[in-house]
# Entry
Amino acid sequence: MPHIVVIGAGITGLTAARRLLAAGSDVTVLEAEPRVGGQLHTAPHAGIHLDVGAEAMYAAIPAPVELARELGQGEDIVPAASGTTWIRTERGLRPLPAGFGPAGPTRLWPVLRARVLSPAGALRAGMEPLRAGGTIDDDTSVGALLDRRFGSQVTDRLVDPLLGGLHSGDVRKLSVTAATPQLAALARRHRSLLLRRRRPPGAGPTFVTLRAGMQSLPAALAAALPPGALHLATPVARIERAGAGVDVTSEDGRSWSADGVVLTTPARVAGPLLQAASPDAAQAIGALRAASVAVTLLSYPAGVRDDAPALAGTGMLVPSGRGQLLKAATFVSTKWPHLQADADRQDGAQRFHIRASAGRIDDERIDALDDTELAARVHEELAEATGLTAEPREVAVRRWPRTMPQLEVGHAGRLAAATSALQRDLPGVVLAGAPYVGPGLGACLRSATAAVERLTPTLEELTT
Ligand SMILES: Cc1cc2nc3c(=O)[nH]c(=O)nc-3n(C[C@H](O)[C@H](O)[C@H](O)COP(=O)(O)OP(=O)(O)OC[C@H]3O[C@@H](n4cnc5c(N)ncnc54)[C@H](O)[C@@H]3O)c2cc1C
# Structure
């Protein structure tokens, strides 16, 4: 049986392990932390459990939801409440218009009515059907494409807070083909993004989560591994070529001989791990940037809702141009009613929970603040935006240093350089996960499947 070592027990690594086992391989999973899940992390806070990493699955991308069902979690999939998402503007909070997705407007009228754009900006956006054309390749940024089509106000006031916020990135640096392949495909296929024929929006929620928190998805994957396959608290220190195979050594000196390796750690770890055996791959991976982000949980007395009607919405987005630390906030108690029900059941402590995200690429300010200072700044910005007056009773900060991958212009070239150097120096080692395909569970699952497919010829050779 071929033996494959999977490095990292996040959603990518554990999904790859599942697919490899199904293909008949012997699998070892090595994980640095004492828990599985990586960026899927559910932690106790103020008497309940809240996600401090990814909080939701986008229902339009079926793979993560299908995986949860495959693992027997169908009954635990819960929808987000429908409600207003606010955008912070210079004139206060405005609702995110309907007909607006991460990649720009699909319907103009709701965007105009939302009064996020100035009259001149709205007029310019309406000229999109006349502004088609232009090349779209890996050197085209999302911002450049949307500036050309809709004008810079759509980019700055709507796409930046939504898509830029999701990626913690600069939309004028993110590659349209790497970070938003669907937008690139649509823009190539249709003369106008506004006039193209659209399928009517499907019924059902936009976002769903898992009742016990998103970490329950990797936990279920881990529970399905054969006994002894998963090694927690086992950071890998070295990957070396050993004849036709690969040797993987952990920091505590244990070693595993493998026929193949799926490497799913963040890029800041993958580069140094490959440095000795494939300096060219390490260099190409070293050029992949990632933003540091921090999630702050703030729990207010439940009555806070009465002072701040905006908290009846599901959350808010903040454009980067406003100079604030906050990039987005989820009004957890409104968006995820099941969590409030849990809190009510458990101790009756009435709280209104907010989950606030800060940190963007090339903005180091969160690193200069300790957790108390960061929580205080985030609270001030929330209070200023929503009008809430109470102080939070419980706060917690979870930092994700250099974690949010930036699929910037030229990404495809850097990835190709890393992949071909690996094929030459360490055949049998494949890269997978968010650093290469971007944040988002759907992309990570596709990446895990693609990694296993790339190993398939090796596996077939070994089994025949
Ligand atoms: C704050 C935040 C919010 C997000 N929100 C959403 C969301 O709502 N919806 C969504 O779809 N996506 C969201 N994402 C993105 C999504 O969570 C990630 O893209 C995805 O979980 C990445 O999975 P992965 O397995 O590729 O990487 P990771 O989860 O980073 O897993 C890599 C694993 O490698 C391990 N590792 C590191 N070094 C070593 C070593 N030396 N040896 C062994 N193991 C090692 C790590 O401990 C980790 O467990 C969010 C991300 C963050 C940070």
User: Anything to note?
Assistant: The mean pLDDT is 92. The two ends are 10 Å apart (CA to CA). The pocket of flavin-adenine dinucleotide is lined by residues 7-13, 30-33, 38-40, 53-56, 235-236, 264-266, 269, 293, 295, 400, 403-404, 433-434, 439-441, 444 (CB under 6 Å).
